[in-house]
């Protein structure tokens, strides 16, 4: 399962429909990789792209598109970002823990980074929920 944050569904749909098929692999084959390498497995099917290839491509893309970013963008940093975005969008910590495959909730809590206005945002959301409930009682 891969969460599609920040409207990534359109990009993934484009990739699957327009790019993926260009690799000449059977997309219905069980276990077919989403990110394919130009290399082939011994049975002739497309191999999965390697970790270092992804890491290097991500570093080049970050250097090109995020020149002012002070840190290195890695797949691990993206896991933290994704966990934080899911939490900010309302996913509970237990669901994020299961999604990331963490045995301990404390590990997941280290992945979730909240905004500086988190407490205020939570308070406002609680006030809005209370106001909605009260409005329902008035009718």
Topology:
Elements: H1 9-19, E1 36-40, E2 46-48, H2 51-65, H3 75-88, H4 93-100, H5 105-111, H6 118-138
Antiparallel strand pairs: 1-2
Short description:
The protein has 139 residues and is mainly alpha-helical. It has helices at residues 9-19, 51-65, 75-88, 93-100, 105-111, 118-138, and strands spanning 36-40, 46-48. The chain has 2 domains: 1-49, no CATH class; 57-139, no CATH class.
Structure in words:
The chain has about 140 residues and is mainly alpha-helical. It folds into two domains: about 1-50, no CATH class; about 55-139, no CATH class. Helices cover about 55% and strands about 5% of the residues. The chain contains six helices and two strands; from the N terminus they run H-E-E-H-H-H-H-H. The protein has helices at about 10-20, 50-65, 75-90, 95-100, 105-110, 120-139; strands at about 35-40, 45-50. The protein has a two-stranded antiparallel ribbon with strand order 1-2. A hairpin with a 5-residue loop joins strand 1 (about 35-40) and strand 2. Helix 4 (about 95-100) packs across helix 5 (about 105-110). It starts with 8 loop residues before the first helix and ends with a helix.
